[in-house]
Specification:
263 residues; alpha/beta; 6-stranded mixed beta sheet; 4-stranded antiparallel beta sheet; 11 helices; binds adenosine-5'-triphosphate
């Protein structure tokens, strides 16, 4: 179980990015964290993985626990050793290395005798990567690079995956493919997943539970089937009106100013 209690994060001791965030990711579940640009979703993941420190950020209040042990204040390498892998937004693969070499880089925390089974697992989830294993990662399509970034994290045999915007900038075909695989990883490898997404529609399809974030705060949470039916979520994040029509971005912004809903 991953648990955040009343977490506040500041960057450079001046920018308050998270304001009392409390959330839980039960073992074996997929939990989605939804919200608009700048809501604080990536900061939440970086606070968990310890990467905020590399951006001069700090947990200034509250605590983060993994299986009952505090991990806030630990460095990123220590959090990785506890089985938490963070796949950052923007597909950070090593472009000059081959697909195979990128995957080896992901396995450095796992014993080398397991290497073959790790490759077999990643290539079973992502057959496209197997086909391209000798090619340079920089020449892969955006969708394939995202697969490689997730595959590289899987090489470390994680218990918990933090996925930041896996759908960002991808063609719809790749979005569906990647989310189908995310669901399989959770179901088959029992990997716990905290998923940050702006694409609420697809995130609500795969996750069991979701939190909605605005301005550094959690404003709504619930099981995904319940949130999918919520009028506010439909209007703000799914772009659908009560009559089933799609709303324009302008309408949604207007609606947002008029109506405030807090969990
Ligand atoms: P996006 O989808 O655009 O990444 P987000 O919900 O992930 O949005 P964050 O990136 O966590 O939001 O940003 C939350 C707030 O913290 C924003 O106001 C942002 O400007 C600020 N912020 C994020 N990273 C830094 C940083 N390295 N230094 C200073 N402020 C930052």
């Amino acid at each position: 179980m991953l648990k955040l209690t009343d977490v506040e994060v500041m960057y450079g001791r001046v920018i308050l990015a998270l304001r009392g965030v409390t959330l839980e990711v039960p073992e074996g579940s997929i939990v989605a964290l939804l919200g608009a640009n700048g809501a604080g979703k990536s900061t939440t993941l970086k606070a968990i993985s310890g990467l905020i420190r590399s951006e001069n950020g700090e947990v200034t209040q509250g605590h983060i626990e993994l299986d009952g042990q505090r991990i806030d204040g630990k460095d990123a390498a220590d959090v990785v050793k506890r089985g938490v892998m963070h796949v950052m937004e923007g597909r950070h693969v090593f472009p000059h290395l081959t697909v195979h070499e990128n995957l080896i880089a992901g396995a450095h925390t796992a014993p080398s005798r397991d290497l073959k089974s790790k490759f077999d697992l990643v290539y079973q989830y992502f057959p496209r990567l197997k086909d391209r294993q000798g090619g340079r990662a920089g020449y892969l399509s955006g969708g394939e690079q995202q697969m490689l970034a997730i595959g590289r994290a899987l090489m470390a045999n994680p218990r918990t995956l933090l996925l930041d915007e896996p759908s960002l900038g991808l063609a719809p075909m790749f979005v569906q493919e990647i989310f189908t695989i995310i669901r399989r990883i959770n179901a088959e490898a029992k990997t716990t997943i905290l998923l940050v997404e702006q694409n609420a529609r697809v995130a609500l399809q795969v996750a069991h539970y979701a939190y909605v974030m605005e301005n550094g705060r959690i404003v709504l949470s619930g099981p995904t089937e319940q949130l999918s039916r919520d009028e506010g979520v439909q209007a703000f994040y799914l772009g659908v009106t009560a009559a089933g029509e799609r709303r324009s971005y302008r309408d949604v912004k207007h609606y947002r100013r008029r109506k405030a809903w807090i969990a």
